[in-house]
Amino acid sequence: MTATETTDRAQIPVTVLTGYLGAGKTTLLNRILTENHGQRYAVIVNEFGEVGIDNDLLVESDEEIFEMNNGCICCTVRGDLIRTVQNLMKRRGAFDAIVVETTGVADPAPVAQTFFMDDDVRKAAKLDAVVTVVDARHVLQRLEDTAEAEDQIAFADVVLLNKTDLVGVEELTAVEARIRSINPYAVLHRTERCAIDLKAVLDRGAFDLDRILSLDPHFLEHGHHAHECSPDCDHDHHGHGHHHSHDGHAHDAPHSVKSISLTAGELDPQMFFPWINQVTQVQGPNILRLKGILAFKDDPQRYVIQGVHMIVEGDHQRDWKTGEERVSRLVFIGRDLNWDVLKQSFAACAAG
Ligand SMILES: Nc1nc2c(ncn2[C@@H]2O[C@H](COP(=O)(O)OP(=O)(O)OP(=O)(O)O)[C@@H](O)[C@H]2O)c(=O)[nH]1
C-alpha cells in the first residue's frame, strides 16, 4: 500500500448537498438519515433565517446534527465549518461520513473550498461529491433571476432533478436540456421526493478538482471568493464590489432576498389557513420559501407547513413533548415582501 492510499482511507468522505431554496435538500437528507445503508453520518446544516427551523424539520435519528445558523455559509466557511469539522474529527470513530447541507441561496464553492484550503480539514476529510437538488418546476425561473442556481448546477457532480411530478414530460425534457447546457458532466437522475438509491448519491468518489479548476481557475487560492458577503463577516474581502446589510429582523442575501421570522403562541386554525392561502396566492411569486412549525390551539401535535411560491403543503409532525413550549414559528424567504403587514396579519391568527 502506498502512502497516498493510506491517507485516502484515513480521510472521511464529505458529501456537500446543495440546491436552491425549497428544491428538496432536507427531503434527501431525511432519506439519508433514515434509510438502512449501514453507514453512520454526521450532518452539518447551515440555515438561512433567524429561527432554527430546518433542524426541526429533520426526522429524529441517532445521527449527529450540527446547525450553523449565523447566516450565509460563505461568511462562516473558514470559521464555523472548519471548527465544526475539527470538532467532529475528535470523535471520528463515531461516524463514517459527513454530509454538509448548504443554505439554499449559497454558492457551493466556498464550502467545497474548505475541504482543500484548511490543512487540518484536508488531512481528515475528503470531498466526495457535490450533490445538487433541482426543483424541476421552478428552476428555469430561478436561472433567470439568480446566479446561485446556476453556480449550484455548474458545481454538481450529481444532479437530482426533483419534483418531476409537478411538470409535464416536455417541460422536464426542456429543463434537463438546460441543466445539461450548464453542466454536461454531472450524473443526472430524475426524482420525485428525492427517491433514489442512496448509492447514487453517497460515497461516489466523484468530486473532480480538475473540472472545477477549469470552471474556476482561482478555486484553490486563499482569499478568493466569488460571493457577496455581509460587512460583518470575518473573511478576507479582496475584490469585493458588493455588500448586503443586516437590519435586525431581516437578513439580506444576494439579489435582495430577505428572510423574516415570525413567532406567536398558539394559533387559531380557522384564522391561520385562510390567511396563509391568501398570502401565498397574492404574494406567491415573491415567496421563494416559507416554512413553519405551528402550535394550533387544542391540537396535541406540532403542525409543519412548507411552501415554495404558491405551492404549500402541511402536515402534523409529532406530539408536542411534555414541557416543550407551544410556540408557532414561521419563516418567509423572499423578495419585496411587506414585513410589517405579514407580522401584523400573522399575529392576528393567534388563538383568543
Ligand atoms: N410535489 C413535490 N414536492 C416535493 C418534492 N420533493 C420535495 N417536495 C416538497 O417541497 C418542499 C421543500 O422541500 P425541502 O426538502 O424542505 O427543500 P429544501 O431544499 O431543504 O428547502 P430549503 O432548506 O428551504 O432550501 C417540501 O414541502 C417538500 O415536501 C417532490 O418531488 N414533489
From TrEMBL:
Gene3D superfamilies: CobW-like, C-terminal domain, P-loop containing nucleotide triphosphate hydrolases. It catalyses: GTP + H2O = GDP + phosphate + H(+). It holds the Pfam family CobW_C. GO terms for molecular function: hydrolase activity; nucleotide binding. InterPro entries: CobW-likC_sf, CobW-like_C, CobW/HypB/UreG_nucleotide-bd, P-loop_NTPase, Zinc-reg_GTPase_activator. Residues 257-350 form the CobW C-terminal domain. It comes from the Bacteria. The keyword Chaperone applies. The keyword Transcription regulation does not apply. Keywords: Chaperone, Hydrolase, Nucleotide-binding. Signal peptide: none annotated. Residues 235-254 are annotated as: Disordered. Belongs to the SIMIBI class G3E GTPase family. ZNG1 subfamily. Zinc chaperone that directly transfers zinc cofactor to target proteins, thereby activating them. Zinc is transferred from the CXCC motif in the GTPase domain to the zinc binding site in target proteins in a process requiring GTP hydrolysis. This is Cobalamin biosynthesis protein CobW. It comes from Roseibium aquae.
